[in-house]
Amino acid sequence: MRDFTTDHHWLSINTATVRAQWPLDRIIDECAARGIRAISPWRDQVAAVGLERVAQRLHATGLQLSGYCRGGMFPGVDAASRRAALADNRRAVDEAKTLNAPCLVLVVGGLPGALAGTPVHKDIAAARRDVHDGIAATLEYARDVGMPLAIEPLHPMYAADRACVNTLEQALDLCDVLDPQRTGMLGADGNERAALGVAVDVYHVWWDPKLEAQIARAGRERLLALHVCDWLVPTRDLLNDRGMMGDGVIDIPRIRGWVEAAGFGGYSEVEIFSAENWWKRDGGEVLDTCIARHRSAV
Length: 298
Hints:
The chain has 10 helices and 11 strands. It is of the alpha/beta class.
């Protein structure tokens, strides 16, 4: 396993971690000033600054991307909304390509209408069929432009509204159905990657008794991203009370060891939603703590 204790060479910041403090262009500059080599921006933050301006700032600072957040949300309340989701995912693929992202992360969606508070049905199997069809259509376009897609399974507490793919096993089953040959795209490191893979977020999958075996099943080709933070006990808000690495109960180094043993050699991407703690602190303090904890707790 790689030694992270002496530097933060493999640290990436998911820009949600300091979204409350700064706009994206400032986040880029603050990360670059600290020698942080990579970020993973969210589409709304990119749109607020402007896609071309963000691309220019990344080029000027030399920052790389560890991913792009996010595509997905495929199930719709009707055929028109499902078509609109596909069109939006095409735009997300194009944006990711413009920013030279290594992958577009997919949060696939749940019961149609649930995120807005009014689910139109309770048929989670139907929602999963919509997800299958939506990924299949998006993959066809993404393959043409050379942008890998990374399915991110979310904790089961999000099955209704955000993602009906809840385990790494489910995500890999989709990968095997839709991309059975692990058809290759050349990664930034010169290694082949599958056109469809997974993003492993420890917050969502740490509890899974099959996790080690499924990470090994994914292998180097399908392991496209690693997200880190911690699970607090108690957790005050299931969406916006993630912990800084080392403050909770996730054995992050063990999971990273499994991921690296399977062939992953990319960034550890810190993604923290924290309305009552880290989003209330000075952004510089947050980034400096990320650097320190990346060395001591990841």
